[in-house]
Design goal:
Helix content is 70%, strand content 0%. With 306 residues, it is an all-alpha fold. It has a single domain, classed as ABC transporter involved in vitamin B12 uptake, BtuC, CATH 1.10.3470. Helix 2 crosses helix 9 and helix 7 crosses helix 9. The radius of gyration is 19 Å and the shape is globular. The N and C termini lie far apart (64 Å). 45% of the residues are buried.
Amino acid sequence: MNFEITVLLLAAAVQSGTPILYATLGEILTEKSGVLNLGVEGVMILGALVGFLASKVTGSPLAGLLAAGAVGCVAAAVHGLVCLVFQGNQVVSGLALTILGTGVANYIGTGYVGQLAPGFAPYPMPVLSQLPVVGTIFFNHDPLVYLSYFIPVVLFLFFSRTHHGLNIRAVGENPAAASAAGLNVAVYRWFGIIGGGFFMGLGGAYLSLAYTHLWTTNLTAGRGWIAVALVIFAFWKPGRAVFGAYLFGGIMALQLRLQASGTQLPSSILLMLPYALTIVVLVLSSWKKGTSDEPAALGVNVEPAD
């Protein structure tokens, strides 16, 4: 593999990793509040479908993006209703959300398979795109990729430097102590759930509006599950999520290029590469106990205040 091909592969890794990054950041925000949402896959595919349909109807990819974010909020709110209001099991609720979202999206989207919609085109950044190597890898993409460069920084500053971000972390660590200090635990958890759902919806919209510009059945192809695993790999830190998302994006881009090059490896082996890496990452992350920022109260329901 020569240098030019390597640079192009790294650029493809950034593009392929962007939807995973959006979803991972959304799950980090949700889990920082103490709520586990395993419905990322379902939220993403609903965002992909609604974003596609809104863009197709209005002719505006921006309208599609906002619609995808909105449906992500609504879908996540269903999870919040089950877990925060009815005190349902968070794992079961998340799995049900994935099954529901995937089924609804594939059913409604059946008539649109293969159809195109207006999307976000690549926009080489002036000056920056002309830089050797770095310009090709990072600054020759669509606007949603550029936006994804800033969100991890914003989330890091939010969690570490702002009053509300620190409160969310407190709620995720010890909701009883946070409540005793006067914090409304339910409000902060609702914020984490709905805010996280917004980013998950954007991740889905990226697939239909920037990555493919079309709709097809099972468009997310397990990326939501990869995002859930990446949260653990990233130790709940937005900065590490960037590296993890691009790593998985690179594996996805590599397996596509290996298939296109006519490799002798069976296609089933190539398709399993990202998911095999997911298992490896989870195993390696389990050896790093004591170095993560996992919220102590993650997955623990809190009785609503009287």
